[in-house]
Write a structure and sequence with these properties.
Low-confidence stretches: none
Structural class: alpha+beta
Strand order of the largest sheet: 2-3-1-6-7
Largest sheet: 5 strands, mixed
Helix content: 40-55%
Strand content: 15-25%
Distance between the termini: 52 Å
Oligomer: single chain
Shape: flat
Number of helices: 6
Radius of gyration: 17 Å
Amino acid sequence: DIAERKADAEKIERLAFYDPLTQLPNRRLMLERLNRALVGSTRHKGHCALLMIDIDNFKVLNDTLGHGVGDQLLLEVARRLQGCIRLGDTAARMGGDEFVVILEGLHSSTEAAAVARKIVDAAAQPMVVEDRPLHVTTSIGVAFQDQNRPSTTVPELLARADEALYDAKAAGRNTFHMA
């Protein structure tokens, strides 16, 4: 009975904090971790960055090839994202084809740019989903929090990353832009 309750509690927590498809943290858990990162970077006089990632033209792929292929594509992008970040950083799925990465303990914005470039390059590598060769690209908006802006809030950092994401898309996609 106790084991069953424990299993139920773990299942409820998983449903509350993790994306059911990718098993990455969901928006709720990402917001908690982002807040923790901002507080930690202020306390330790460090830096953090928020990367907002969007799969270019995902809706077209999903609509033409089907949701099963779209789901497999999302899983592969999630796997590649995790391969581009350090242990302790957070990759999360916000919903749809939108992902977020939180980078902590940075020394400069150059480190955030290097991770963004690594993600753009990793996503652009050819992939095969259900025996179909696919080529996808990503656009990334990067918002960097440093000691020159110690009072940065979660909503402000999210808004800056979102604006940078749209700048990356306007610049032709398959790139990143720093806010």
